[in-house]
Amino acid sequence: MTKKTTLGPILEINLAMLFISTSGVLGRYIQLPPELTIALRGIFAAVFLGLFILWRKSSWHIDTKDRKAILIGGILLGAHWVLYFYALQLSNVAIGMLSIFTYPVITSLLEPLVLKTKFHPIHIFLAILVLFGLYLLAPEFSLESDATLAIILGVISALCYALRNLIMKTKVQKYEGTILMWYQIMIVSVLLIPALFMDVNWPSVQEQLPYLALLGLLTTTIGHTLFLSSFKHFSVTTASLMSSAQPIYGIILGIFFLQEIPGIRTIIGGALILVSVVVESRRAVK
């Protein structure tokens, strides 16, 4: 792919990261159980994306042999979202976003196993760098610490997201990103239907519906669909690593809207994680 032809996809993936990064601020601001938040997010996103698909007159057809992969992808996406929102509630935007941003390095380690691509030894060094960065994110390493628990949940969320992206890589050349995303969102929404019957303050839920709608439209419908579509132009590892701007966007939004200023350990730990991402991005693009 030439520089001229990569400019569009690179702009597309950066726009996707800007929209996806709104999840940090919205996830912290919305004070609901994560399962309920994700269920409502899924419903809003399914409506928005479904209307867009109808407007585009795209085909809804999915071959029978591909349905299992999309089902698994939807389950992993739902687990990623719920765990990520728990991580946000237990910590802050910086720790929550930086902990899940281990997914690019996790992807680079898993891609040779899942898609049988070439393994590069530098990924071991980058993984160690990320682990040290995660250690610095936590004020203290204790399972009784909310920050430590948030990091653990964030990393598990990142693992789910990495696996989901690798599975979808095998399908994105065959189907439109919007169609794949809609089916996965529907799977998430159906699985989380029980959350709609949780004992919560429903007047409070109604007050937060505009922010849930933003989460469904900006973060999910636009952001995740653009990111999934980028797999047509790049490998999953390259697309994941090129998205290094996401936590930076998210932290800036957190400072601006929530006045959450990260501490020095968080900045250093986050810098190490992002250095590993940038190093691998340059290597992958070359």
Mean pLDDT: 84
Number of strands: 0
The tally of structural domains comes to 1
Distance between the termini: 11 Å
Residue share in β-strands: under 5%
Describe this structure in words.
The chain is 77% helix and 0% strand. This is Threonine/homoserine efflux transporter RhtA. It comes from Dokdonia pacifica. Pfam families: EamA (PF00892). Keywords: Membrane, Transmembrane, Transmembrane helix.
What's the SSE blueprint?
Elements: H1 3-20, H2 22-29, H3 34-56, H4 64-90, H5 93-100, H6 103-114, H7 122-137, H8 146-169, H9 177-191, H10 202-207, H11 209-229, H12 236-241, H13 245-258, H14 264-285
Helix pairs in contact: 1-11, 1-13, 2-5, 2-11, 2-13, 3-4, 3-9, 3-11, 4-5, 4-8, 4-9, 5-8, 5-13, 6-7, 6-8, 7-14
Keywords:
mainly alpha; 77% helix; globular
Brief rundown of the structure:
This protein is mainly alpha-helical and 286 residues long. The chain is built from 14 helices and no strands.
